[in-house]
Each structure stands twice: as structure tokens, then as C-alpha cells.
Amino acid sequence: MGYTGKRNKKNKKSQMEVLGLVVIVLLISVALIFFITVSLKAKPSTTKVTFENKLLSTAMINVILGTTTSAACGYGEMRTAIIDMFEENNFCVPNSTSYVEERISEIFSKTLDEWQKDYVFLIYEEGREYSPLINITKAEKPLNVEASIYTLPSKGRNIMIRLDIVTR
Fold first, then answer.
1. Which pLDDT does position 12 carry in this prediction?
2. Residue 47 to residues 62, 78, 146: CA-CA distances in angstroms?
3. Cα–Cα distance between 150 and 83 in angstroms, integer?
């Protein structure tokens, strides 16, 4: 009897140690799962968002400038129609300003609007940013703005094309 009593105590002690290790492993696992879920739900850093918005605004301006116009504007590039807005050669029907504004609004509706991005798009003569020829805005409360400005040279003046991507 004395022999089996020692054996039962050893078995119980071993079982308690194993149970303690299992509890510790479970606690560590739960803590690790909690940490992973919290880190995955974290918002992207402001540096990353700033970089992405700057890249997006630059790419959008390049796309707009390289877009081919329709027959109403002679199948040229959009940059030619934008220059014509200021030179008033009337390449486009009914006029270049209306054509450019309509086409750019269409591009934005299929891209930035679908991606739920807020933006401010301006085309103006250098030094006259407060009276742009085109102002397309979809921004309620701009908190942080990342802008790309492109200069398009024209006869004796610079045409400024600016796209601000607004971070909510």
C-alpha cells in the first residue's frame, strides 16, 4: 500500500505540471491572437496614406493629359484641349473649356468617385489660382490634402493643373 500511495502522488504531481503548462500555452496563444487581430485592424500610417495620395494625384494628372479626345475635339490629346482653353482657338465643340470639364468629370466619376476619394481639381493660369477656368470639387471637409501640380507651358504663360486628394 505504501508503494502505490507514492506512485499516485507522483502521477498527480505530473498531471498538475502538465495542466499548468497547458494553461500557460493557452494564455500565450490567446494573447498572441489578440495582438495579431489588433495590429491587423490598425489604420495605415499617415506617411503611407500621404505617399499613396500624392502618387494617385500625380498619376491621375498624367492620365488626364495623355487621354485622347473624341471627334468633338479632333482626336488629339487632352493637353492640347487644355492649352486651347487659354488660347481660344476653339478646337473643340462647343468650346474647349466645356469639353475638358465634361471629360475630366467623366474620368473622375469612373475612378476617384468609385474609389470614394474626395478631391479638388483646378486648371488655372499661373498666379490666378483664385479664379480657375475649371474647378471640379468633391470634398466636404478637407482635413489633409496631398496635391500634385503640373505646369503646362503655353504661349507666354504657364497653365497650372492641380489635383488635391483629400484625406478624411
1. 72
2. 23, 32, 11
3. 13
Higher-pLDDT residue of 12 and 5 is 12
Q: Write the pLDDT tens digit of every residue in 84-128.
A: 888 877 788 888 889 999 999 999 999 999 998 899 999 999 988
DSSP 77: B
| Gap between the Cα atoms of 86 and 109, Å rounded | 25
User: Residues in the chain, how many?
Assistant: 168
Residues 133, 156, 73: CA angle, nearest 5 degrees: 50
CA dist 162 and 76 (Å) reads 21
Q: What are the residue boundaries of the structural domains of the chain, listed by start?
A: 1-42, 46-167
Q: What class is the 46-167 domain?
A: alpha beta
Helix (H) or strand (E) segment spanning residue 97 = helix 96-110
Please give the backbone phi and psi of residue 92, each rounded to the nearest 5 degrees, phi first.
Answer: -105, 155
Q: Kind of pairing, strands 118-125 and 134-138?
A: antiparallel
Residue with cell 475630366: 104
Over residues 42-100, the pLDDT tens digits come to 676 777 778 888 889 999 999 999 999 888 888 889 999 999 888 877 788 888 889 99
Cis check: omega of the bond before 132, within 30 degrees of 0: no
